[in-house]
Input
Amino acid sequence: MRQQIIVITGIMAAGKSTVSDLLAARLKKAVHLRGDIFRKMIVSGRVEMSSQPSEEALSQLGLRYLLTAQAAKAYYDAGFTVVIQDNYLGEKLSEFLQMLEPYPMSVIVLCPDVEAVRKRENNRNKVGYVGFTVEELHAMFTVTTPHIGLWLDTSSISAEQSVDRIMDYLQSSIR
Output
């Protein structure tokens, strides 16, 4: 597989972290870049996203995306395939991809059904859904996010099976 930047997105509890880690481990020279790490670096003054985000929350989200794109390009330039994982919802996906141009990239969208997300959220040791419901976010995501790349329903397949399908997709999309 050719070196590239692989963007993995989906709503919270879609399986992005697990799948991204497994995918990066299967590649010869790869980095798993968690965009959320830049949010967590803000020690004081951090404003969380919500269904009605403030200007500051949107500004911090934009900064997070910019830093992620810059780090991804630096790793790519150093010879790594980069697996980026974050929530790029709606038009934010296209905006983020523009930050990565002209680098070669693939988009993977993990899109399990609402019931699968609800079960995964209940089994996690963290809470992602504050200020909106799984149903609201899932509906918004599936309607407003551009249908580009591989959309993978991971409701009834394991993380390993998801990575198998992603690897097949990446191999078949070599130009």
